[in-house]
Each structure stands twice: as structure tokens, then as C-alpha cells.
Input
Amino acid sequence: MNVKLILLLPIFEIITFVLFGDLLGFFQVIFLIFFTGIIGLYLLKSDLNIKNISEINANPNKWLFKKIAGLCLIIPGFITDIIGISLLFNSLRKYLWRYIPSNLKQNFDKSKNQKNEIIDVDYRDLDEK
Output
């Protein structure tokens, strides 16, 4: 059933685009689509600094939902924008975390608990004689 909803998402996005276009006007709707896309790009690029790695490891759920919200905001359409904005609120994140399958949660927790090990390696070109 979830696959059917994902396949119907573009149709629902077009319908909401037309409805909001009638309600707000064409140029305002285009402005909102570009504005939310810029916000989504900002959310995706905001944690790319190497300084923030310790913050990401401290609270990985916040980082994950922030990136998913950024992706939803980049996709043009009001339904995905509403989903993206709702993922930015902490209370809704906790609610949605309950519905993520447990095997995905376990994989995410395993990567969180792994130690950052540095492996020292010497490079030698085997083709060179």
C-alpha cells in the first residue's frame, strides 16, 4: 500500500499546486516553491563542516530527520513541503521515530556506537618495479 501512495504522490502534488495556485496566485506559488527549495538546500548543507561531527554523533536522530526534511523541501510540491516542515519539529520527530521499522533503527544505532578508528596504511604501487 505504501508503494501505491508513493506512486500517487506526483498526482497529489499537481492537484495541490493547482489548488494553491487558485488560492494564492501563480507567482506567489512559484515563489513559495523556490523559497522552500532554498531552505531545503540550506538544511542539507548546514552540517557538512568537520567540526559538527561530534554533534552529529551526539544526536543522530536530529541530524537524520533534518536531512530528510531538507530533501522533502527540495522536492517541488506542497505535500512534500508540509512533510519536510513537520519533520523540523521535535515533537513530531519523536512521534515518527516510533513508526520506523526496528531493523532500520538497529542499523542506525550500530553505526552510532561504532568507534572512529584510524587505520595507518602504507601505500606501495605494485605495478612499479
